[in-house]
Amino acid sequence: MKTHYYLGWFNNHFPESLSKVLQEDIINRKSLVMISSNPSIYEETGAAERSWLDQAGIMFEEYHLINYSIAKEEAHTLIKNTSVIFLLGGNTVELNRFLAEYELSDSIKKSRAIVMGASAGAINMSAQWLCSKNLGYNVEDSTLYNGIGLDNFAVLSHFDLEHNLTLVQSELSPLSEEMNIYASNKDCAVRVKGDKIDILGTVYLISRSKILRLDETL
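User: That's the sequence. What structure does it adopt?
Assistant: Structure tokens below.
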């Protein structure tokens, strides 16, 4: 059964309810493969994300980080054999470029591992995402990017929704006519397990230009 976690950002640690379902889902703890969103930076990448898992009591026998220091072929082998794949937060555009350059998307989709992503990682797990200056990107022109496409929806993760709901709804309205969009702030999660979608924290569904706050189920 496919299990995907689209996470926001957690300043300290996972909430207890999220830790509990992760402990239940992550049974195989042989290895964790983290994919860097800043692949040219080799030091301390993924420290925050790993600390969340550590504090939740989820430890692995092996830890691996995929960045430019790892050969493309080795990266594919690591993904094929891992228990959990974690796409790290950071630079959303750079992560998208790195996934394309190393041709990792198909390998991730074919993997039987649990797939997690935080912020930039969660955004790139989705089918499509919008890069726009109104959504916090340092760009002049808006661009629609293809993500890995683990699930047929779009994600806006780790964004200050409380003060920007009208802007977000307007900006994402065209894309919401094509697919559902899950928009969340920090300290939030969307879990897809099989055909079921669970919600933690403040998450909105934008569908056909309408926006609705979803009830928490975790």
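Helices lie at 16-25, 47-55, 72-81, 92-101, 105-110, 120-125, 165-176.
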